[in-house]
Design goal:
The protein is of the alpha+beta class. The protein has 15 helices and 24 strands. It has three domains: 269 residues, 2-Layer Sandwich (BirA Bifunctional Protein, domain 2), CATH 3.30.930; 64 residues, Herpes Virus-1 (2-Layer Sandwich); 95 residues, Rossmann fold (3-Layer(aba) Sandwich), CATH 3.40.50. The structure holds glycyl-adenosine-5'-phosphate. One of its GO terms (molecular function) is glycine-tRNA ligase activity.
């Protein structure tokens, strides 16, 4: 088996096309020409996403003192005033005077090799942009004719429950974290936890991204896996280091290429943050943020205490000390993780003389664990035996496919393309000795395994 060197330039196009062709991900509202920044998940995409969220939940569950939450997407508008999102959650928008295309000024600067932090003020980014105006081209029409840079708020507004114009503006949540902060007291008051403890949550978030791009990387509707760890201020920095280590180990446990993962400390910390870094992955379009790990001090709870009037202090029963807990946050997008897993798994190679595309998913993440086929489609005795094998495996693993379409070679290619680690074929020998062939996706090698040993064979391989 010979692995071909991948051309990074059109790798994203190949992945997008495979995702559509095989039913992982479809463009949102495609029959109406598409709706930017949205994607719909097909059957294999749903399974891949579920396997990822399951591993995240398991990793969180394994950490001491973890609780879980599912908070509403809609909240009181005051939540987003308290959090600072209404006044300060924005991207630098620039509009082309010729074709009216909207772009992010920091991205256009990046295109000509100038790094502009996304957290710069409107004034600062205008200054940097003006210095290079004559070098910057509109990605839409190529003109070098732009207006001024404006801060464009990322919160998506809604009119849910708005009865008249005097009522407070309602937003779709821009992150799941705020739902955790506003429930911190509720969770503490249940009496099951004490400081330190964590609240973990998976859920949708919405952002008015100016230029959603790179497929699942930057969407307008996406899902986050966020965890907030509430701790004593004296222990917060240690917890930050523990979470950094745990989160990097999580990606290695998933089977992601460690050479494509790295920590990147934040250069400009927001005023309330004590420490922050990203875990970056080397996507085909370069190193980019996968997950953020932030030591946020007591900023969030202090803000909600101020705006809601509710006392957010924790009272230590033993020491009688009273304080607002400090928070360590880990935050990663499900969609971005799926994209990383797809990029990490995508391979083009040759088995013998035959070229193929293969998704080498770690078996625990593969949407389908194994596919079962009768060697020939027109032999009832083979079909009947293969159905028996299929039923047993399906009952055990769930993620099992029946595949009798086309010849065996075509079935293997199709299963390779969706990343199925094992293909099981029932042939005439099966009828004589109750063994089947099991083909390994990565090597193409085949073994004969006794039907009664299949369940334990597969179980051992996918752990
Ligand atoms: N609560 C902190 C927070 O939301 P963030 O850096 O804005 O921080 C955290 O987002 C993670 O959410 C990112 O590292 C990324 O994985 C994911 N994410 C953010 N914006 C996204 C978008 N527009 N599309 C897809 N994923 C996104």
């Amino acid at each position: 088996m010979k692995e071909e060197k991948l051309d990074k330039n059109n790798l994203m196009e190949k992945i997008v096309s495979l995702c559509k062709r095989r039913g992982f991900v479809f463009q949102g509202s495609e029959i109406y020409g598409g709706f930017a920044g949205t994607y719909d998940w097909g059957s294999l995409g749903v399974a891949l996403k579920r396997n990822i969220t399951d591993t995240w939940n398991k990793a969180m569950q394994d950490h001491p003192n973890m609780t879980f939450l599912d908070s509403s997407i809609f909240t009181s508008g005051k939540v987003w005033e308290a959090s600072g999102h209404v006044s300060g959650f924005s991207d630098p928008l620039i509009v082309c005077n010729k074709c009216k295309e909207k772009s992010r000024a920091d991205h256009l600067l990046e295109n000509i090799g100038i790094k502009a932090d996304e957290k710069l003020s409107e004034l600062e980014i205008n200054k940097i942009f003006n210095e290079s105006r004559n070098k910057i081209k509109c990605p839409g029409c190529g003109a070098k004719d732009f207006g001024k840079v404006h801060a464009s708020n990322l919160l998506a507004t809604s009119n849910l429950g708005m009865l008249d114009e005097n009522e407070q503006q309602v937003y779709l949540r821009g992150e799941t974290a705020q739902g955790i902060y506003i429930n911190y007291k509720n969770v503490l008051d249940t009496g099951f936890v004490s400081i330190p403890f964590g609240i973990a949550q998976i859920g949708k978030a919405f952002r008015n991204e100016i230029s959603p791009r790179q497929f699942l990387f930057r969407k307008r509707e996406f899902e986050q896996m966020e965890m907030q760890y509430f701790c004593n201020p004296n222990e917060a920095m240690d917890n930050y280091e523990i979470w950094k280590k745990e989160r990097m180990e999580y990606y290695q446990m998933l089977g992601i290429n460690p050479k494509k993962l790295r920590f990147k400390p934040h250069e400009n910390l927001v005023f309330y943050a004590k420490a922050a870094c990203d875990i970056e992955y080397e996507f085909p379009f370069g190193w980019n943020e996968l997950e953020g790990i932030h030591y946020r001090g007591d900023y969030d709870l202090t803000q909600h205490q101020k705006f809601s009037g509710v006392d957010m202090k924790f009272c230590d029963e033993e020491t009688k000390e009273k304080y607002i807990p400090h928070i360590v946050e880990t935050s990663v997008g499900v969609d971005r993780t799926v994209l990383m897993v797809l990029c990490d798994a995508y391979c083009e190679d040759k088995i013998g003389e035959s070229e193929r595309v293969v998704l080498k998913f770690p078996p625990k993440l593969a949407p389908i664990v194994c596919a079962v086929s009768p060697l020939l489609k027109n032999k009832p005795e083979l079909i009947s035996k293969a159905k028996d094998v299929f039923d047993v495996l399906k009952a055990e693993f769930g993620r099992v496919a029946w595949d009798d379409n086309g010849n065996i070679g075509k079935r293997y290619r199709r299963q390779d393309e969706i990343g199925t680690p094992y293909c099981i074929v029932v042939d005439f020998d099966t009828l004589a000795d109750n063994t089947v062939t099991v083909r390994d996706r990565d090597t193409g090698e085949q073994e004969r395994i006794k039907v009664e040993n299949l369940k334990s064979y597969i179980k051992e391989k996918i752990q």
